[in-house]
Amino acid sequence: MSNRPLAAAGRTVPLLRAGLIAGIVIAALAYPLAAVTGLGAKATAHATEHKTRLLAKALPAETSYLYAPDGKTMLTMFYEEYRQYTKLSDMSPNIQQAIVAAEDSRFYQHKGVDPKGVVRAFVANAHASGVSQGASTLTMQYVRMALRDSATTPKEVQEATQQTSLRKIKEMRLALDLEKELSKEEIIERYLNSAYFGHRAYGIYAASEIFFSKTPKDLTPVEAATLAGLVKSPSQYDPASSDQKEATARRNYVLDRMSQLGYLSPDAATSAKAEPIRLKLTNPPNDCAAVPEKFNSWGFICDYLKNWWSAQPAFGQNRLERMDKLRRGGYRIVLSIDPKIQEAAEKNLGAGTGSPFANGIVLSEPGTGRVKAMAVNRTYSLDLSENPPSSNPEAGPKVKANYPNTVAPLLGGGDLPGYQAGSTFKMFPMLAALNEGMPLSTSFNAPHRYQSAIYDGWAPTNASGAMTGMQTMWSGFGKSVNTYFVWLEERVGADKAVHLAEQLGLRWRTDVDREQASPSKVKKWGAFTLGVSDATPLEMANAYAAVAADGRYCEAMPVQGIFNRDGTPATYTTASGISREVAKPRCRQVVTADAAR
Description:
Pfam families: Transgly, Transpeptidase
InterPro entries: Beta-lactam/transpept-like, Glyco_trans_51, Glycosyltr_51/Transpeptidase, Lysozyme-like_dom_sf, PBP_transglycosylase, PCN-bd_Tpept
Helix content: 40-55%
Number of helices: 23
Strand content: 5-15%
Shape: elongated
EC number: 2.4.-.-
GO molecular function: glycosyltransferase activity
Organism: Micromonospora azadirachtae
């Protein structure tokens, strides 16, 4: 016997075996309980059913948008994956047809897994002694993307994407079940909103905007075929590269397939293939550094918004989860800043951006805590290359000063300690005294120097000898008489003044301040009334706003509205189980109305 028939038989047997295996796999997937029995089978079926329902409800990560108070002027976006979910009705039929032609021509005939495709892939791979052809339908691809996007651990990401037969079989099973939950139209809509097209474009809305500066509804057959061709390999078929040869070949393949499936006439396909790929590239803004130049000062407000967001339990258990929600949650965020007040604040700063002295203005709305202006004589920019060296001798020669460019939260809302606020702190012992029932007429013959018996002999002085004499709360506050207020703080208790400041929003950011405010030392913190503690302009504006609101303190808030991707207001649940809007003012009575007045 010659070797030729044996060689032929050697090729044929594996091919037949591959087809047989493919048939068995499909049968086992379609009828899983025929292949396995017992409690394990039931548990597996229940787990698969649960996963299928989760996938049916799952939505991909979506870009969050930041707007000016008019709710229309977009300032910037926040995203890791640039994506805006788009309904199928808002997509051109061209892209729907192109993606079917490119990725799964039998999409409307199979039920999640294409038996012919599986057999074809098994045969091709057996013949090639490796993976030369896949068998993934659009549904299977969507399952893989949904599993990846909904993963919460690195292990889940790996399980969703690893190249193993077990993963493929699970994927097939889920695809079969998912097609019982979702219609073909729902699946292709989700697929087109999940797929990656390169250049940080996730989903067809982002791809249409980034490559052609248009919406998915306006895509032509040529543009749709170009984008559909990218899904297979975004880098290999990138039309924005210097050589469009492979991108054009892939596009033409998709156009040919569209013609073969009856989506395009042969003449239309031929005409389309003759066109060059014409791009109109767009680079979508991302994060605060991308705020438009005419709104440059709003970059500081944007940065404050991020710091505020990272502290809100409504968006996660920790800072990392909350920022992930911002970049993936698809929120519509409307700032509280009043453009006219902001403009007036900027005009009244005094020194220019080149001044080493940081002049700032913060305006907080009494009764709501909403920040209406936040202006500082600095340019919001990450580029510090032209800034002079820092004047801090401990900073080192390579450290730059924070002017004219900076992104440091100089006005508050970030991690910087703040500034000594001086005599503005006299409000706290005064309010504490009034809240305790002491009248404004409370008098003391204030000397130029006052030696405290309570504060271990500490002996502060007044700014001027002319302040010496009988003072009341009226005159002592009006003239800012140090010795009167040290005496008043002794009478009401430094601990009560400090506690009131905490109730009005002050936080101790330095080790020294935290130590002085500690239970063991707070009663001896006499210098507190003279403003030796670090505070931010934002904190002080908000504390004084509480006095203007009849003693009702409201947490500082940079927003007037936060909306979920479905348009409903973002909410959180209070400790008492009540659902409240995140952007709704959070206020509480801290001092009596009479004391505040």
